[in-house]
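1st attempt posting a full record on here, be nice pls
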Amino acid sequence: MVAVTYSPGEALDGFIESLAEATTLPTDVVLADNGSTDGVPERTAAACSNVRLLRTGGNVGYGAAVNAGLADLTDGWALVANPDVRFEPGSIDELLAATARWPRAATLGPAIRTPEGELYPSARDLPSLSTGIGHAAFGWFWPANPWTARYRREREAPRERPAGWLSGSCLLVDLAAFHSVGGFDPGYFMYFEDVDLAARLGRRGWLNVYVPSAVVVHEGGHATRRQPHRMARVHHTSALRYLSAEHPGWRNAPLRAGLRAGLGARMLLSYVSGRVAAGARFQRGADELD
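the predicted structure (as tokens):
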């Protein structure tokens, strides 16, 4: 298991403690640390025999840190997770059991609920131009709009199914498939690295499977709260990088220019409006998982 840490604070204690009931298997945890200054990763590694600290050499970004943590593992399954995730009892075993039902699965993701009891839409379609533009333009003030609903699949009840992409905040990965596409693209500092990975795996014939019988709780927002303007800039830059790569060539140059202008305008608007920065509110409750 790899968790990327960046001064995680008390959240890391809950992460480690919740592992005890998440699986009956022994767990080895690599903390791929991006330059923490709070001393928590060091303290945790010293206190827990199954936890190893791997310093990445600086704040290299989420995907690059995961790549470093998985570099020495070539086959089998590994879990990638944020350190502010809490695992519900049996959640990891549920993900592992699903691998037998989906032999072409390269990634499997659990249902993710928020501490407030919302169901985070973690299994989405790959963003097309129409859904991406509609979601970005209307989601922050009209969260039930048809583009956001189509992209996030929030008009259907949670069920086990293939998805376009799964949230990288908690992801079980087939290591052979992961390495066959080069892992995460380190060009994404944060955001959209999971979208890009899923798209490349899908082009190779692999599946990304949502397993809502496995449940985790994700607090989220640590980096955003600490550096809101920087994270807004990173989010929009990553979106532009992904969409531009999906529409290469000189014929699409006007389209890429339009995307740059539109995403730039939305980024500036998010600096002055917390509502825009927060994006579309989630439309389903975690009680539906019962």
